[in-house]
């Protein structure tokens, strides 16, 4: 039978995941927690948190010029390998939400 985990413990784990910058799969593997269990804890934590705007996390970037990308476009490559191209001047908040959604 699995060990019963108290709310303060799973809340701390969910908060640690949110601050980690890792995918749920990476975090669960590193902590020895089942992915489905972590997903449940993160879901419950997000539901119990007071409604707030999701903070934008900034990540280091490398700016490179490529022949196939015109200078009026930028390309973001997510850790998953997904590539997103958007026009220079696109709303940064929109791009951050899009990249965050791709990372889930």
What this model shows, in words?
- The chain has about 100 residues and is mainly α.
- It folds into 2 domains: about 40 residues; about 50 residues, no CATH class.
- The chain is built from 4 helices and 2 strands; from the N terminus they run αααββα.
- A two-stranded antiparallel sheet has the order 1-2.
- A hairpin with a 5-residue loop joins strand 1 and strand 2.
- Helix 1 crosses helix 3.
- The longest helix has 14 residues.
- The model has no long low-confidence stretch (mean pLDDT about 80).
Compute the separation of the termini in Å: 30 Å
Domain count: the total is 2
Sheet having the most strands: 2 strands, antiparallel
The 3D shape can be described as elongated
Question: What is the radius of gyration computed over CA atoms, rounded to a whole number of angstroms?
Answer: 17 Å
Write the layout of secondary structure elements.
Blueprint: H1 7-20, H2 24-31, H3 35-48, E1 73-77, E2 83-87, H4 92-103
Antiparallel strand pairs: 1-2
Helix pairs in contact: 1-3
